[in-house]
Amino acid sequence: MTCLAFETHGPRLLRALFDNIMAALPTNERLRSVDRRFPDGEVCVEIARSLRGRRVLACQILSVDAPFSDNELLALLATIHGCKTAGAERIIVFVPFLAYSRQDRPDLERGRPATTELIGRLLRSAGADAVVTIAAGATQRIEMLYRPLRFTAVDPIAPIVAALAPVRPKYLVAPDGGAVRLAEPVAERLGCELVVAAKQRVDAENVVLNVDAAGIESDAAPVAVVDDLVASAGTIVALATELRRHRPALDMYVACSHLRPTPVGIRRINELYSAGCLIGLATVTLAAPVEGLRMVPHMPPVAELATDILAALNTDETFAEDFRGGRAFSA
């Protein structure tokens, strides 16, 4: 079952990933764009059939444009609730990017709650039983906050390896400790040396990085950078600044799980691109050009990622029952 945003943007973004997952289901029937809008703009969900006893895979894009993510999230919640009302036995949600995954800890000084926990509660209240996503943020903590809802986050190792392989980097930089989970297996597959930077955040859009550049300064090959999310591009700018102190003629290729550039991020990426420092940008969850972005992000093949997602599901007996046979249902 797909929501409107998925159908509108999915074909150019993640259609191949969705199709590969669908192909693995033993039986499936698609219901497209079940959410609509009333004339006043409020969400309206129409499921013109009974789902009694069915298992549903509900798909939605929450990262098309950041300002509209809240609307798409509400449409997803209404769709889940509609499926449950129509008698669905079990509902699995697939969202390539999990909105609010970065707000997993409260900021007591600023009076900011852990909104990640709220999203988990809303999904459970709507009727979801499980969430599948491409990893971003503190996966283990999100899993804890979402309980008893089952949560699976898959690292997009294969697509990022495919994007970086033609670059042939000798060094791969993880901007911080959080990026190591993704960067380490990528570096191992590429046969390059992993360098982990020490990051200190100044504010929401700026960071300071320290990098052990031994070896990088004397190597002419492009430097690969792997991160889970690029938004304000503050990390990329800080990393480029630090590396160019050691190697002024720096060629840097960035590969990330999710690209959600803010206006500041677009400006910074454009500046690095115009300066000849940023020679490539690849992402798993956004393939179309971003308005105002001078370079076209590359989206590598995702067939192997779909296999990894299904493999992760099959390690859990409850998920395995949904995806191996019986009354599996998707739309």
From TrEMBL:
Keywords: ATP-binding, Kinase, Nucleotide biosynthesis, Nucleotide-binding, Transferase. Belongs to the ribose-phosphate pyrophosphokinase family. Pfam families: Pribosyltran (PF00156), Pribosyltran_N (PF13793). InterPro entries: Pribosyltran_N, PRTase-like, PRTase_dom, Rib-P_diPkinase. GO terms for cellular component: cytoplasm; ribose phosphate diphosphokinase complex. It comes from the Bacteria. The lineage of its organism: Bacteria, Bacillati, Actinomycetota, Actinomycetes, Mycobacteriales. Residues 169-258 form the Phosphoribosyltransferase domain. It catalyses: D-ribose 5-phosphate + ATP = 5-phospho-alpha-D-ribose 1-diphosphate + AMP + H(+). Its EC number is 2.7.6.1. GO terms for biological process: 5-phosphoribose 1-diphosphate biosynthetic process; purine nucleotide biosynthetic process. SMART domains: Pribosyltran_N (SM01400). GO terms for molecular function: ATP binding; kinase activity; magnesium ion binding; ribose phosphate diphosphokinase activity. Residues 31-127 form the Ribose-phosphate pyrophosphokinase N-terminal domain. This is ribose-phosphate diphosphokinase. It comes from Nocardia ninae NBRC 108245.
